[in-house]
Amino acid sequence: MVIRELKDWHKEYKRPLIISGPCSVETEKQLRESVLPILDKVDFVRGGIWKPRTRPGNFEGNGEKALQWVANMKRETPFKFAMEVATPEHVELAMKYDVDLLWIGARTTVNPFNVAELAEALQGASIPVLVKNPIHAELSLWKGALERFSKAGVENLGAIHRGFHSYQKSKYRNIPLWQVPLDLKSEFPELPLICDPSHIAGQTELVPDIAQRALDLNYDGLMIEAHCQPQLAWSDAAQQIPSEELGLLLDGLLLRDAAFTKENIISQLEIIREQIDQADREILEAINLRMNLVEKIGEYKKENNVAIFQLSRWKSIFNSRQEWAEQLNLDKDFVVDILRLLHQQSVKTQTEVFNQKEEKNLSSND
Asked: Do 321 and 233 share a structural domain?
């Protein structure tokens, strides 16, 4: 992909890039009262023009009428405006009203047909396009959407991490799964990465911590929903912060250096990294030993006509390892994730053992 760095298409860029404004543009009065208090704190004002809801019957946006309100405000008080587009018609209207930045929503990213239509509508466009992660943690879909826009000649590209849907109980509206966007950034280092703490959190009190975590991970910017009266918002009321509090939130965030510069710190860092490398080696050696033992168990089960999956054994492992984790002051959820991965690999390994033996038997019968 051909990707321009954020500083090359947003000349005023100073980390972090801030995109903020109401979830939905509800009325002209609400837009003004939500936006005016934050204009000196943001790079782009965001606002939902169309708001497709999970189920019909709720407020779904004002459409072109809301863009007219935005245009009226921009004539009086210049600012850059960002909005979501989901159809070629949305793109056409965005161009008509001189919108400054577009983003692609999670529900759109998940559908390659929709993305292809939008990419065609934006063929060769210079307007920046940010692509939100798909609803579920499918990195290939996220990359595929970005690649479609890149092939259409859109060079001012970026990605928005808004978290992922999960059926697991969580304090978040969408679980962060930080490693997924970091994998994307690792593959495309120039790609601007923006965090949407509002959609990850689902609750205003969680927004600052998520925003700080994103900056700790060297994200390029933040998209935060702000409303003049969040408790009266027509959509996503629980996750929008009061507009007058945006400045306090931003002032409370700590910016980290992108790299170490002092020699004494670098020297100490290298010592710690060597210890981490050694610890990782020991972990991998332990996993290798475990897989060898799993293979032996697979052979023993096959020879004695015993099923691969033993529920009682799995429950025993699941419970005892959590107790061990607690004794070692390790996060239980983290340990459970590791256990599930190890168990999946163990089942796969034993299945391969069963299949290998059957193949040998078939060969000998030939």
From this structure: no
Phi then psi dihedrals of residue 354, to 5 deg: -60, -45
Tens-place pLDDT, residues 143-153: 999 999 999 99
> Which letter does DSSP use for residue 23 in this model?
S
Is 290 contained in some domain?
A: yes
Is there a contact between 51 and 63 (Cβ–Cβ < 8 Å)?
A: no
Number of other CB atoms surrounding residue 304 within 10 Å: 7
Sequence-ordered strand ranges (E) for 32-100: 44-46, 81-85
Count of Cβ atoms closer than 10 Å to residue 268 Cβ? 12
**What's the confidence (pLDDT) of residue 40?**
96
- Write the pLDDT tens digit of every residue in 216-234: 999 999 999 999 999 999 9
Domain total of the chain: 2
SS3 29: helix
Residue 318 — φ and ψ, nearest 5°? -60, -45
CA distances from 258 to 48, 150, 215, 255, 276 (A): 33, 27, 10, 9, 20
Spans of the chain, pLDDT less than 50: none
Q: Is residue 257 part of a domain?
A: no
Last residue of a domain, one of 251, 274, 303: 251
- DSSP state string for 270-300: HHHHHHHHHHHHHHHHHHHHHHHHHHHHHHH
